[in-house]
Amino acid sequence: MADQVRVVESQTGAIARRGRLAAAAMVAPAVLLVAGVYAYPAVSTLLYSVSRIDLSPRFRLERIVWLKNFINQLTSPTFWEAAWITFYFGVMLCLVTVVLSFLIALLLNRTFLGRGLVRVTVLLPWAVPPVASGVLWVQMFHAEFGFLNGLIRAFGGEGGIIWLGGSTIALHSVLVAEVWRWIPFATLFILAGLQIVPQTVREAAAIDGANPWRSFRHVTLPLMLPVVVPVVIFLFVWAMKVFDTIFVLTRGGPSRGTTTLNFLTYRQGFEQFDFGNAAATAYLLAALTVVAIAGLGWMLARSRRLAGV
Amino acid sequence: MARPARGSIGRRLKQIITYGAATLVLVVMAFPLYGIILTSVQTEPDIRSRNVAFVPTYLETEHYRQIFDEASGIPVAEAMINSLIVALATAFLTVAIAIPAAYALHRMAVPGRKIILAGLAAIYILPTLLFVIPLFIAVVQLGLYDTHIGLVLPYVAFTLPFMVWVMGSFVRSIPVEVEEMARIDGAGLRQLMFRIVIPLLRPGIFAGLLLGFILAWVEFLTPLLFTSNLSILTVTLGLFRSTMDIAIGQLAAATVITALPVILITAFFQRNISEVITAGIER
Amino acid sequence: MTPKRFDSGVTRRQFLGGSSALLAFAAMGGFSSLLAACGGGDPTDEGAEPGDDFTGQLGVLIGTHMDPVKQLLEQHQANVGFAPNIEEVTTPDLRTKLTTSFLAQSSPWDAVFVTAQLGAELSNREWLTNAGPFMDQRVRSESDLLTRGMGAVEFAGDTWAVPWTMGSQLLHWNKKLMEDAGLDADAPLNWHSTPNSWDTFVEYAKAMTGERDGVQYYGITDAWADKHVLWTWGGMLQMHGGSFLDEEQQPVFNSAAGVEALQKLHDLMHVHQCIDPAVPTYTWVFDATPGFFDGTRGMFISWPFVAGVAAIPEAAPGIAGHSAFAPNPAVDTSGSVDGSEFFGVPVYAENKDEAWRLLDLIASREGQRTVALGGWGSIYSGVLNEPDIVEAFPFYPALAKAYEYPVDGGWSEDRPRWTQFLADEIHEVLAQRKSPKQALDDAAAATVEARRQDEA
User: Fold this and answer.
1) Segment B150-175, tens digit of pLDDT
2) Strands C162-165 and C215-221, bridge-based pairing
3) What's the rounded Cα separation, in Å, for the pair B206 and B213?
4) Which ipTM was obtained for this model?
């Protein structure tokens, strides 16, 4: 970081001004494109959220209703049910993915025959288009001829589990599919982190007589926190927006059991064409995401202080 | 093959655990993919049978033939080409725009630098699902409806923030001293970029192109509603839209076809891709 | 993690101020252009009266399943001398496709496929041209039109779309499974005219349920995920004499009839246990068909086309040759929910008269023979009963018969919303978390409350 500041400081007067102009010109296309594609819909959608939209016979802002759409949502049990499901799903996705990825990364950090193959295989789910992975999990979870029940039967079990049948089991089935999809990203990230924990530090710990767990707990883990936390934040943001898998696997059911806030937004917006309430829901979801990330950031700062890093 | 010199029990045990874990990871991660490939080469009655055969006794290529059949009514070849065009255009445009932006943001005095970086990251928190309607109306009004550009622009915009971040970390890995020496030699900004920075960034650029291509190829349900209205079919969309019917085998074959290009790219260039995904980390 | 010092000519506050102004501008600019674009004159009803403004261009949006319509389009091309521009869409995608396009005030198509569900929505939003004059001249003049199949597209005396096929759900069954269970496989033929035959239906289902030679058989299969449960339940509601909405379009599905119907639906799963327990996960008909076609599910309340597929040995090895069908069983009466399909002419269409010319062919008796011979129910009962057609498709008379019983779907503009409430509450009952009465009352209350919020 210090090197950049040095560059900035080394420029003076006219050169710096010309530099700023050139720099602005270099950044402009990216900023303009992103802003053009996002800012306009973002602001329009924010307007929708405080409006009543009429579609008959044409899309128009009927009137501004201020916070009514938000109040509708905040007073609706459906919203809170979805908010809870979303939050639970996000926390579970982060937890399960990070723990599994950490274990896989620890494995991949060792030398063994066939490591390259395992590495590629772990990476593959990332390359499967979301809808394709949806289709694939439909085949996995099918109650009658699905692979999971087939596998259970192959090992002598009953194999009659209806994976998407109840609210709770369906939510966790979706979770399994999503964890599978995000393990590649998290594993790579953590693996890269592990590789920069200097081997010498761990060896030093080993010489000091620390057992593997103690060396993991007191050396690797604190050093890894700065790597894990961004992964968690990234996963959480994506968990908040999970859509494809739910759309393909459960359509939010059974009985709203997998209706996350993002899916509720879809229902309100594109099944009921109630853009006002859908926009309010979407922005409440964004708010929830921001609050949760702020919480994570606070936890990071705290854990860093505790770990003395 | 590295055989342990001293066959202590602890070492042996460690090895068993390592290989056991490796096998478990391999099987669990590959199982769903294996399942869908298996489904695509079995006959419809077998697919629907309770007796799942985990090792196929025959290979049925009928589903693949049907997908590419004229009578299916889906121009698969055309859709493939459309996808290719859109993904390539997205990859090149994104990288071309991201490099100068990343360089400027990390090595030059850009007005509002912090805000721009934060804003680019914050984009991903916004409720993109809902943006489809205003975006769609805008695209129609700009006359981009049914054009490749109408597809590429949103993809590029969606990929850019991530790409700027990734390229940024590659830019930061270039030693400042190299640039300073070039400057002392009197190189202007343009020469600096084309003679020094871009050549040094080459591995990053290649990885960035791969990433852009994959993200664009894979992208299609996020803007479900948006792309559904474009008659220029991309392959992912086309295959799924049209085979969502009774035939599970065809759907599985379509899934394999759709995922295959990106899976191959990932397998071949896994080092580069790993590098890009984890680019932000080590420096 | 960011540089400690940032040296720039623009202070952050200036930049923030500037960018927020930019955003506000973009928002206003965006909206005014949007509103301006939307203000482009009323979508008029011109073209409602079919004329002869033939432009020699025609865009058609059809469903991927509409083979007979494709055939008719070829015939049409030969008649008019130019090739129509045909686009295909799957039924699940249709809604978003039409709505997003019409929201942008455009329609690349002159005639569009419309489901019964969509008919109500689109016509209430005035996105379809009034088809009344066309229907009066060309279709209603035929005395044997199945008028009960028109409910979805008729409002306030106007008609908004032209039917191409009609169909309500029928009872399909596997005669072999029934005989194996020692049942009279022809008895279901008369259930629709036998009050309280529902109970016999349940007895039959129970008799067919069980494990034989390591294979699990169930008496009934269906697709109940999400809103799909409303097809069968809606039929049962009307079997009890109930209906979804009253004449003022207020919800009355929580009547005693509704509660009784829901209790019966619940009992299939939890008391009689004679239905495939995975039906709440089947998101559409094709999730349920595999079990029925491979001969492990005895009865299936579903669309007429199922009978056509069930007759093909390659597609349905477990039932071909043993497939039978009839109108649904009865409680007070038989009942079903209409699933007819239509073509509408969007108000934004540019070649409306060409569209009417095509629909003229599709709705003609000759066109309807093509439809019926392609495996889809004709809109005229006469065509459904023509001997050569019945010989090819024996289930057509049953279909015509089904339309003698109630087939209402509760069509209203906010149907997507209240059906969501209703379906969610029905699933609460199926998951045994609520009583039928409570669930239906909650759905009705949610419907009324949502409408009240609309008004507020």
Assistant:
1) 778 888 888 888 888 888 878 887 78
2) unpaired
3) 11
4) 0.80
- For residue C169 the two structure tokens come to 């759900």
Nearest of C325, C350, C333, C451 to residue C400 by alpha carbon:
C325
Going by the DSSP 8-state scheme, the letter that residue C328 receives in this structure is: P
Contact between C215 and C276 (Cβ < 8 Å): no
Using a CB-CB cut-off of 8 Å, the residues of chain C touching A53 are none
Instruction: Provide the CA C107 distance to its chain's centre, in angstroms.
Output: 22
CA–CA distance, C416 with C421 (Å, rounded to integer) = 9
Tokens 């871009």 found at: B198
Instruction: Answer whether A154 sits within 8 Å of B108, measured CB to CB.
Output: no
Backbone φ and ψ of B199, nearest 5°: -60, -40
pLDDT tens figures, A244-256: 788 878 888 787 8
Residue A206 C-alpha, separation from nearest chain C C-alpha, in angstroms: 32
Question: Which B-chain residues 183-202 have CB contacts (< 8 A) with chain A?
Answer: 189
CA distance C56 to C84: 9
User: Rounded to 5 degrees, what are φ and ψ at C301?
Assistant: -90, 110
CA distance, residue A182 to nearest chain C CA (Å): 25
Gap between the Cα atoms of B188 and A155, Å rounded: 70
Q: Can you give the pTM of this predicted structure?
A: 0.82
The interaxial angle of helices A221-240 and A167-196, nearest 10 deg, is 140
Task: Please list the residues that pair with C85 across neighbouring strands.
Answer: C59
Taking the Cβ of residue C5 and every Cβ of chain B, the question of whether any pair is shorter than 8 Å is answered with no
Element (DSSP H or E) covering residue A47:
helix A13-49
Is B22 within 8 Å of A139 when comparing Cβ atoms? no
What is the mean pLDDT for each group of 10 consecutive residues in chain A (309 residues)? Answer: 42 57 86 84 88 78 88 91 94 95 91 89 84 81 87 84 88 95 89 73 64 75 78 88 83 85 88 86 92 83 66
